[in-house]
Amino acid sequence: MTSASGNATGLEILLSTLQSSYDVQNTLSILQILDELLSAGTVKRIRYMISKGGSEALLHTLINMTRIFPPNYDVLLPLLHLIIKVGQRDKRFGQKAQEIGAINETLNLLKHSLPQPKYVTPCLWVLKIYATSVVTGAALGKSGITRLLFKLISPYTTRNTKAVRRAVDNGYIHRLLKLYQDWHQRDTQNRFTSIHKALLNCIKNITNIQAGKKAFLQADGMRVLLSASQAYGSSPGLQPVIKLATQVMRKCHPKQPLPLLTVRSCYSFLLPNAADSQPLACSSMFPQDVIAMKEDDEEQDDEDNIENEEPVCNEDDDDLETDLTRLRPNPQLDRAVEELKQYERLCPELTGYFQDSGRNPNGPSGGCILNPSKHKTKKMHLSMQRPSVDSSKACIQTVTGEERPHFLSQSWSIDSEQNGQHAGYKLSQMRREMVPFHDPHVYTMMAEKTRSASDYKSLAFPDYWGHISPVYQEPLTGQWSGHQRDKIFEDIQRLVSPGDILNKVVFDADSLPLVTSEDDISLKFYSHFESGNLRKAIQIRKYEYDLIMNADINTELQHQWFYFKLSGMRAGIPYRFNIINCEKTNSQFNYGMQPVMYSVHEALCGRPHWIRVGSDIYYYKNHYCRYNAATRGKKEASYYTLTFTITFLHSKDVCYLAYHYPYTYSTLMTHLHLLEESLNPDQVYFRHQTLCSTLGGNRCPVITITASPGAQCEQLRQFWNRQYVVLTARVHPGESNASWVIKGTLEFLMSNDPIARSLRDSYIFKIIPMLNPDGVVNGCHRCSLSGEDLNRQWSDPKPDLHPTIYHTKGLLSYLRSIGKTPLVYCDYHGHSRKKNVFMYGCSLKETLWQARSSIDTATLKEDIGYRTIPKVLDKISPAFAMNRCCFLVQKSREATARVVVWREIGVLRSYTMESTYCGCDQGKYNGLQLGTQELEEVGAKFCAGLLKLKKEEWSCSKQLITEDGAVFDSDNELPNDRRVTPSDGSVDDEPPCSEEIDYDTDNCTEEDDDSIDLAAELSGTSEDELELDKN
After folding, report:
1. Helices vs. strands in the chain: H and E counts, helices first
2. CATH number of the domain bearing residue 905
3. Per-residue pLDDT reduced to its tens digit, 198-256
4. For residue 88, how far is the Cα from the chain centroid?
5. Is residue 266 part of a domain?
6. Which PANTHER family match (predicted)?
7. CA–CA separation, 879 vs 875, rounded Å?
8. What are the catalytic residues?
């Protein structure tokens, strides 16, 4: 008894001394004694120590030692070790810690210990013991321990691959998902979103490796996150949680190849000297199956795969040309003068000799006896007269189905309730409503002469019948917050519930036409006509279809243009269409653009319009991918989905859908023929000649327009001294808006407008309205039959592979060789990622300023006349935006028409004019999509802008300034300032859109990683936020 009493007195003395000690050395000595006493004994000694106030003494000592800064871990580590040993045996230890005030001190110690894992572990054990008390656990929650713990573990799931692998091997993914599901089910009032986000961040980081993704899928993580995200609804406070969940699901969705045998075009064309020529994209070395196989073998971190995303266009200053020897224009001929003489036939206005008139090529240069317009022949169009009444009736019978030749056998069909006689009457009535410069009979004959790689045998009704621009303008369509994510959730649902998916192929251009039953309610698709592009259609759900575009011929790339027919629809039903193999990383479809549709039913009712249609339009990255041939399959390139919904007005209608207003090669040839027939040869000098034949055997037209000369020699001399303006368009076949703009240019120059008359008196226009007929005919987006982008071949075009570019450059070189360098060259294009109409030009000084070159630009001379036309257009053309123009010269664009014509031909005013596919965000058309009427207006206004270059014409007539007075009032000064180039300017053909875009659902990257900012959250959190819902 005596011995026991002495030991008890000694322990109490030690504990009392420990509790009141502030000396580190004395405290450490007492801790060592207590540790030896407890280590040598049994659990009974620990309980005895607790009964003598041991727990309280240790907690008071912890408070005393944590107030010493910086923390002295020589004493803190033994102290924490004893607290762990004693606390595990004291059921009221957590409550005692709360009463004494040790909780906050322990949390502060943990925060200071974060950089050192060996100091963190004892703190975590102590906190775990505190939390055994429910009351103390709630107090810890109020103190922000949950966020602190997630901040602690997050770095180990982000960068530490070994730790991530151990987490996967130990089944943490399943536990995290279970914990997340538990929080989602219990947190019915969504008061703990920070905890939801923290759990998702952990899952997101662990799934950065393939093993983590596989474990996530095996744990049914897609279903867990999808059901939770859908249950959250559209509450603004939960959007960050939904964003993280969506990122995880999209990242873990298995990569899949497109449902095609090969991604290469289903059509091919044998090139001349095929053994020596290489298309742009060689045959894919990696079959589609390899994508799925390789995914199982990949074990590298996703952070290394971020580069696998499609690169955006390079707009860095490093791409700017700063070498003066290359930047300064250096006009020189790339061919012998004798070779260039072959282009004399394309300039009969210079010699008074016209090849198709049969006159002597060595005739007098004075030309006083010749009025070319009165002696022209129409060799190309001898068999193309306007149809008679009988032929018109035959045409109507053909279209209505009463009498169909082979060429129109599948062009279109109409509702069986509309008999042929009634439809024919409507069509005959429509013929009386003039579609300017279009005739179905002439179009048919032109189409019969058009050659295609696919050898199509039918006509699309909109192209055959023509298009009238609607009288109303169409606004930009809006997007609703969260709807894009809903579309993606529907896509993910396919993986979660594959049994609900039909996956029925309803159209395949690679195979024979599919046979369907009469009671089949699926839509019918067709694209085997001029400019058509649809490769495959797959029915996913009853009213949902996946569509796949065909690649450009001889490539496996360039998917953007689509144009196809569909029928068999039911009125009032919303049909969803998903074009799943888009390539560009962004699109104006995210900013108000809509596709266009032509309804045969509406046309028969007197409304033959292409109109903008579609709702719920979104453009986002999907889970389909392909290997990049340029990197030999080491990197994957992702595809993007364009999704839109259409509710048709008429059942069993026949409709045509397209990316933009179609304008076919046959339409162009019809237009030129009818323009030629309509002119007054006494006023307009018009020549329609053939520049060359394309690879596919189609003729590339070149048009000459000017004013017919008088009979006097002085008038003829003025005729031959006129300056040249050269215009080209449609080098990229998918840019059909460029054809509508050049159509406006042609019609304006042929009109009786006083400005048009003045322009014809001042200039000779050489217009090549379609540089890539083969691409247009075959429904390509960017390339010719050689599989190459013709606008990257201007530096060294090959006559056998790029004949239209070779001969266009030859014509320009010929004009320079005879002292007739064009005053203006402009290449018309379309732009898919920017609004408005704008220009790219070439400036030596502005390029050096933008590149921050050390070259003294004050010593360089440069004519600033290149800014004249854009500045005038900014004032007279409602769709034009000067602040979008750019005059930089990039190394990556040195082979484009604009740069080569400026540098090698010596044309100061060498431009690319870009017209948006979408609409405008400024000026008169702000908030509106551009239609064909507005595009044609752009072409007409461009011509009006040319008057500024002819100062001696300004006072010719007051009539010229009634409507376009701004033509004569534009500032043409360029200050010697390095800030003249717009900050968003770029000479890239397709620069990224500068507008904000919600890519929350995109694959995760370091940039979009939404990690938890604990400091910010703690400062903005009320004390009651983490109070548990006891209900």
Report:
1. 37, 18
2. 3.40.630.10
3. 889 889 988 988 999 999 999 999 999 999 999 988 778 888 899 999 999 999 999 99
4. 60
5. no
6. CYTOSOLIC CARBOXYPEPTIDASE, CYTOSOLIC CARBOXYPEPTIDASE 4
7. 10
8. 914
